[in-house]
Amino acid sequence: MSDLKVYQYPKCSTCRSAVKWLKEAGHELELQHIAEQPPTVEELRMLVKHSGLPLKKFFNTSGEVYRELGLKDKLADLSEDEQLALLSAHGMLIKRPVVTDGKKVTVGYKEDQYAEAWSNA
User: Which UniProt keywords are given for this protein, alphabetically ordered (predicted)?
Assistant: First the structure.
């Protein structure tokens, strides 16, 4: 059984690095393709809550979809529900990878952050 769920995009080099790091740290992973199967609004709500991060940290601000939808100028005017609906509808809008054990959540990949959050030591 997996101990971590990873919302990731297989072609993303950052995601591949994160998955490699987690496997080398001894984790069993459940990988979810973020574009084909984005998290639901409820999953996202839980992920944001457990991450302790503001919702805007979940947006992939350097991504194509973010630019196409003109979110740089619109995001601040959207309600939390509207933002969650957008993320759920467009998996590529989500900053990735998102990793969770059901209690804590990390967004993006930084080795020191992973060492702190996901080391099995």
Answer: Oxidoreductase
Count each helix (H run) and each strand (E run) in the chain, helices first: 6, 4
4-118: CATH, from 3.10.180.10, 3.40.605.10, 3.90.780.10, 3.40.30.10:
3.40.30.10
Residue 11's nearest CA partner among 104, 118, 77, 91 is 91
